[in-house]
Amino acid sequence: MRCLIVRVHEIALKGRNRWRFVEQLKSNVRAIFSDIGIGRCVPQGARLEFELPHGVTDEAISERAALIFGVQNFSIARVVDPDLDSIRRAALELVEGLRPASFAVRASRSDKRLPFTSLDVEREVGAAVKGRLECAVDLTNPQLLVVVEISTDRAYVALNKRAGAGGLPVGISGHAVALLSGGIDSPVAAYRMMRRGLRLSFVHFHSYPLLTRASRDKACELAAMLARYQAHATLMLVPFAHAQRQIVAHVERPLRVVLYRRFMMRIAERLASGVGATALVTGESLGQVASQTLANITIIEQAASLPILRPLIGMDKNEIVEQARELETFEISILPDQDCCTLFVPRNPATRARAFQVEAAEGRLDSARMVEEACARVERLEFHFPESLIRNPG
After folding, report:
1. 366: Cβ contacts below 8 Å, ≥ 6 apart
2. 76 vs 301: CA distance, rounded Å
3. In terms of Cα–Cα distance, which of 139, 180, 168, 152 is closest to 70?
4. What is the number of domains present in the chain?
5. pLDDT of residue 350
6. Which uninterrupted H or E stretch holds 198?
7. Considering 128, 163, 198, which residue would you say is the last residue of a domain?
8. At what angle do helices 185-195 and 214-227 cross, to 10 degrees?
9. Virtual CA dihedral for 108, 110, 116, 121, nearest 10 degrees?
10. What span, in angstroms and rounded, lies between the C-alpha atoms of 106 and 156?
11. Taking residues 191-217, what's their average pLDDT?
12. Are 102 and 223 within one domain?
């Protein structure tokens, strides 16, 4: 029998509330492995053991397990009887066909009444593995590590402990709506907030048909990638061109970008209310563009009453790009497109908009009607992982 062993770190520090985090993690594991049919879960202190079905490779299990927030590290273990012969055979099966430059064996036992010590296991298994692999033993920095954990009635034999995604289980911190622009920053911001336990829905503003569908298509690709971390995600596509026309017709050029952003916040907040979300998430980084100066951020956030979370606010562009590459969203984000914020953008946008100026400009607009019209025309797409299906409920 095989099992997936996931080990937690931050969750273990949650005291009396720990059970809530564990239950959320268990639910998330089952969602990510919904097409595989993972077996029963056995909690063991700071780790959870999930029985694995036959016919699914260790590599496929590892790819999925690496997506699950709340997991410090994990391993895929063979479960055998707690005797030296069974442990040795399992270790040899696992290393068959491998060609590491060096290896080591690490053993531990929770039941000290067993007729052998951890050192006995390391010696016996180490000798067998060395004979099979014909490679060097390196106890300091081995290329391959055989891990043996022995309890009273069973032993677990695995290769290495693989790094998990860390953080907190998605959903334990609540539900938020993330503004997904199609650029580099917003997918990174979304990832960082999911890693802190937020379940996200996404909203993307586009100006089709005045501009091409490129930004919509990119948003769909990015939403599908981000859905891997929470098994399901909703993307709300908002046609924004009509609102932009109204702003262009009634507002002086320097203030237009600030008003675009304020209306985005109003619309996103209305959509958040509809899906039960209690916060907004943006990819803003202080000083990166004209709308992200401290003065303009202050003016823009006043258009919404929900908290606005900005996980990238103190990061520079190089740091954000590096994380986007790690997430594999970078290549999608840099595909050419026409973002709605590039439509009707003035040459010299205001960097220090003042409240009285913005209020006067918005006084010439029917703000409530503009928000209502945009929300009425929203297109909703549902992304499901592992099925990776996109459904439009209409």
Report:
1. 246
2. 46
3. 168
4. 2
5. 81
6. strand 198-206
7. 163
8. 20
9. -20
10. 12
11. 89
12. no
Q: Comparing 136-150, 181-195, 343-357, which segment has the lowest mean pLDDT?
A: 343-357
How many CA atoms does the CB half-sphere of 164 hold within 13 Å? 25
Q: Are 217 and 366 in a shared domain?
A: yes
Which residues is 206 bridged to in the sheet?
239
| Residue 195 pLDDT | 98
Residue pLDDT, tens place only, 245-301: 999 999 998 999 999 999 999 999 999 999 999 999 999 999 888 889 999 999 999
The Cα 81–Cα 249 span in angstroms is 77
What phi, psi does 241 have (nearest 5°)?
Answer: -65, -40
Domain co-membership, 133 together with 242: no
Whether the CA torsion 361, 365, 371, 374 is positive or negative: it is: negative
* DSSP state for residue 163 in the 8-state scheme: E
Q: What is the CATH number of the domain that holds 94?
A: 3.30.2130.30
Q: Which range marks the domain in which residue 354 is found? A: 174-391
Asked if 158 contacts 94 with a C-beta cutoff of 8 angstroms, the reply is yes
Q: How far does CA 393 lie from the centroid of its chain?
A: 25
Residue with tokens 């390391």: 122
- pLDDT at site 274: 96
- Under a CB-based contact definition with an 8 Å cutoff, are residues 49 and 26 in contact? no
Of 163, 183, 199, the position where a domain reaches its end is 163
The reply to whether 216 and 314 lie within a common domain is yes
Residues in the chain: 394
User: Strands across the sheet with 379-384, in order?
Assistant: 308-309, 280-281, 174-179, 198-206, 232-239, 379-384, 389-391
Cβ atoms within 10 A of the Cβ of 152, count? 10
pLDDT for 386 beyond 90? no
Report pLDDT digits (tens) over 50-74: 999 988 899 999 999 999 999 999 9
Q: Of the given ranges (318-332, 342-356, 358-372), which has the lowest mean pLDDT?
A: 342-356
- Assigned domain for 50 exists: yes
**C-alpha dist (Å) from residue 287 to 10, 183, 302:** 33, 17, 18
111 neighbors 151 (Cβ within 8 angstroms): yes
Residue 330 identity (one-letter amino acid)? F
